[in-house]
Automatic annotation (TrEMBL):
Keyword Cytoplasm among UniProt keywords: yes
Cofactor: Mg(2+)
Organism: Stentor coeruleus
Ranges of residues in domain Protein kinase: 520-780
Name of the protein: cGMP-dependent protein kinase
Single GO MF descriptor: cAMP-dependent protein kinase activity
Top-level taxonomy: Eukaryota, Sar, Alveolata, Ciliophora, Postciliodesmatophora
Length: 839
């Protein structure tokens, strides 16, 4: 063994003990020699560090910090570099030679040139997890603990805010004191992984908790794929919540990923000895706050309810729920792990009880743990005792709260405001054809329809048809008299709220909605409008913007050319289209405000908002979160349409708008139809999005709408159409490919998304994914459809929108002349139609 050279001069970052003495503790036979860095060595070290998951964000300044502090060591064959169980002070890069890895005396692997090891002990402040023995003479580059940690902090300092956000969203961290959170944040490290790189291995000792910062990971157990996880999701927390400190699965990167890791040992020290109980309680709090029945409760009440849950760690095959009928009287929560019966299963962070959708699927058979599982439960009687009232009474009160909260106009109000509205409103009943108020009346009430239907008229022309949970009369907050009249179409039950009882809750978000409702009712005429150039065309219709100069208001206009209406059946379809549009009252469907008719055209005038057609982005590849938000938004719209038994029948990219906030709108209702069960009508709709049963004329239902969503999701993520369809294919080619070609999904699409695409594009409608399957999947749980419906969430994809310059708009007479040219000759049959009677 050669004599060690003098240790390098001490720097401000040096440890309290001299670095040379630390080396003697760990590598007794090491010889430190001088090895100045040349170009080749620098390139080797840079490449090696950049390939390591911890150092892939390496900047030149970080690299210089490390390279300036490197120590070069030579160790003879058969000597140990590090010893299992000893204190770790250095991270090593093997420069030359071969080394063997031993755990508890058993050889488990080998290292060769470019291998790195020793980081676990430095990251976790723990003892060495393995012994590394020189098989041959080895040379090593060593990085001391302080340099190692300083480099990591520097690398990841720029992403501190995003790390903090994701870290504190984790259910077991979310409700910790801020001081604990900040200490945990200081110990968090971001690791970069390449495609198929293993993050943890099944059976391995558990050292870290992981949160996905970006990308996708794949879960496998005994070599069998168990699904994927994506941004914000957690894995590796099992050791904190159960008694098992071994990994239950292998987790690998799909593509490139960034993973936040937090040392479990540090977390335990920060949180304290009863960390397991604290984390279990945090998960219970998280599950209660996400449950519909508890969303209105103050967090302090939720925390008190969490205290009365009993918790247990179940071993594999231990009984979790013995008598499934107990779900009527007990609330169960799977805090970690999984339980299953012969019919069903429940997994981490799921609450079963209070008659929720999970409780309704409980089945008939007992449930047992499939692995080490943390489980919590409480009798509903104890919840009632803590609350001071019965769940039955609470649910009735909650029903009223949710009814009011579910109305678009009140959706952004807080619990206190909603409670006061419920307290101050009164129930009123009207007979059929009852006039609630007329134009110019000074009625001072806002109305919410509980049962029945109400029509809104202006100058005896039907503007809107409103039904359950719709509101009307909000204009009394801004105007002295009514601009429109309201009349019942059926027997009606309404809630009536005087404006004086609401003004105190007149928040900014509500102000915008009320202004919008006043805009809907504002009178205007076709003669006072000026029109933009055409912005789009479809199905013999033109789309453009209009400006009503007298009130300085903008509108979106759809022009239907009478010359293109070949027979009375086509005319009837246009009338039916208007009948459907006047009853749609959804913040994601452009509101039809008026219809007009002149010599050549029918005008459908909609509310104006800046938007871009999704069809403009054909061939673009959208990010996973962007595509998911668009699909979930469409699900929210389909859910609304289903309450009215309306099928859109032409959901395609060309009928989807994206506004400035990234919110999604559905347009193009010219093929829409009320369908109770099935429809057999063959339509000339966009062929790429038609379901197989539509093409084959077998009759179709709402399942066909979800086929269209599957095509759109595939298209958004790949920039191409499924079934090898090309955009230039003719309709017959497209139909043949949909029927005959297999569905091939690219490997780069994550597993959970692949499952959704495959479920949506199932050939058999009965097996096809629909609303419940999407909402209850891990993929779909990212978003609450109610939040999307109420515009509480902005979309991640925001198009670049050009401002509309109304100075370039032309007068109506110019528009009429243009319409006459575009519309072509008149048809004698349709000249007999009384257009003005309907439009």
């Amino acid at each position: 063994m050669g004599k060690c050279l003098p240790k390098p001069s001490k720097t401000p970052d040096a440890t309290s003990a001299p670095a040379q003495e630390e080396l003697k503790i760990e590598i007794k036979s090491a010889q430190e020699v001088s090895n100045p860095l040349n170009v080749v060595l620098r390139e080797f070290l840079t490449t090696t560090l950049s390939d390591h998951s911890l150092f892939r964000g390496l900047r030149s300044t970080d690299l210089d910090l490390i390279l300036n502090r490197l120590r070069f060591l030579v160790v003879p064959p058969n000597e140990n570099i590090i010893n299992q169980g000893e204190t770790g002070n250095f991270f090593y890069i093997l420069n030359g030679g071969e080394a063997e890895i031993y755990v508890s005396g058993d050889k488990v692997g080998e290292y060769s040139r470019g291998s790195c090891f020793g980081e676990i002990a430095l990251l976790t402040n723990s003892r060495r997890k393995a012994t590394i023995k020189c098989k041959t003479k080895c040379s090593l580059w060593a990085i001391d603990r302080i340099t190692f940690k300083t480099a990591l902090r520097s690398i990841h300092s720029t992403s501190q805010d995003s790390i903090q956000k994701l870290l504190f969203q984790a259910p077991f961290f979310a409700f910790l004191p801020e001081s604990c959170k900040n200490q945990i944040l200081q110990s968090a490290i971001v690791n970069d992984y390449v495609d198929q790189e293993k993050i943890v291995e099944e059976g391995q000792e558990a050292w870290f908790i992981y949160i996905i910062k970006s990308g996708i990971v794949k879960i496998t157990v005994d070599g069998v794929d168990k699904g994927t996880l994506s941004e914000g999701q957690v894995f590796g927390e099992g050791a904190l919540l159960t008694d098992d400190n071994k990994r239950a699965a292998t987790v690998s990167s799909v593509g490139t990923t960034q993973i936040i890791s937090v040392d479990q040992k540090v977390v335990k020290e920060i949180v304290g000895e009863n960390y397991k109980e604290i984390f279990m309680k945090n998960i219970i709090i998280n599950c209660l706050t996400c449950e519909e029945s508890f969303k209105f409760f103050d967090i302090d009440i939720i925390k008190k309810l969490a205290d009365i849950f009993s918790t247990v760690v179940l071993k594999k095959d231990e009984v979790a729920i013995k008598y499934v009928e107990d779900v009527k009287n007990v609330i169960y929560i799977v805090c970690y792990g999984k339980i299953e019966s012969d019919e069903n299963s429940y997994a981490t962070y799921q609450l079963i009880g209070l008659g929720n959708s999970l409780a309704k699927k409980i089945g008939r058979f007992p449930y047992v743990a499939t692995c080490n599982t943390s489980f919590a439960q409480v009798e509903i009687s104890k919840i009632e005792e803590k609350l001071g009232f019965s769940i039955k009474y609470f649910k009735q009160e909650l029903k009223n709260l949710y009814f009011i909260k579910g109305t678009y106009i009140f959706s952004t109000l807080g619990l206190q405001a909603i409670e006061l509205i419920c307290k101050n409103m009164k129930e009123v009943r009207f007979g059929r054809n009852h006039v609630i108020y007329n134009e110019e009346d000074s009625d001072d009430n806002i109305y919410i329809i509980k049962e029945g239907a109400v029509a809104i008229f202006h100058d005896k022309t039907l503007l809107f048809r409103l039904d359950k949970q719709s509101t009307f009369g909000e204009s009394c907050l801004t105007l002295v008299s009514r601009q429109v009249s309201a009349k019942t179409l059926t027997k009606c039950v309404c809630y009536e709220l005087h404006k004086d009882k609401f003004i105190k809750h007149y928040e900014n978000a509500v102000v915008d909605k009320i202004k919008r409702k006043a805009y809907y009712e504002m009178p205007f005429t076709i003669g006072g409008m000026r029109f933009s150039e055409k912005i789009s065309s479809s199905y013999n219709r033109d789309y453009l913007y209009s400006w009503f100069e007298e009130r300085d208001t903008m509108y979106l206009v759809e022009i239907i050319f009478k010359g293109a209406v070949k027979n009375k059946d086509k005319f009837t379809e246009i009338v039916d289209e208007k009948c459907i549009l006047v009853q749609l009252d959804n913040p994601h469907i452009p509101k039809l405000l008026r219809t007009f008719s002149d010599l050549n055209c029918v005008y459908f005038v909609y509310e104006y908002f800046p938007f871009e057609f999704l069809g403009k982005y054909k061939n673009n590849k959208f990010k996973e979160d962007e595509a998911k938000f668009i699909i979930m938004s469409l699900c929210a719209i389909i859910e609304y349409l289903s309450t009215k038994n309306i099928l859109h029948r032409d959901i395609s990219r060309n009928n989807i708008f994206i506004d400035a906030r990234g919110c999604v709108w559905l347009f193009g209702f010219n093929f829409a139809k009320k369908v109770e069960n099935r429809s057999y009508t063959m339509l000339d709709t966009t062929p790429e999005y038609r379901a197989k049963e539509v093409i084959l004329g077998r009759g179709y239902s709402r399942a066909s709408e979800f086929w269209s969503l599957g095509v759109i999701l595939y298209e958004l993520l790949t920039g191409e159409l499924p079934f090898e369809i090309k955009y230039h294919d003719n309709p017959d080619e497209i139909a043949e490919k949909i029927i005959k070609k297999p569905l091939n999904i690219p490997n780069y699409i994550e597993m959970s998304t692949r499952n959704i695409i495959e479920g949506l594009l199932q050939e058999l409608p009965a097996k096809r994914f629909q609303l419940d399957e999407i909402k209850e999947s891990n993929w779909g749980k990212t978003y609450d459809l109610k939040d999307i419906y109420n515009n509480l969430i902005e979309g991640p994809f925001k198009p670049s929108l050009k401002p509309v310059n109304n100075r370039m708009f032309a007068s109506r007479e110019a528009s009429r002349r243009r319409s006459s040219i575009l519309g072509g000759r008149h048809n004698e049959e349709v000249e007999q139609i009384e257009w003005d009677e309907y439009f």
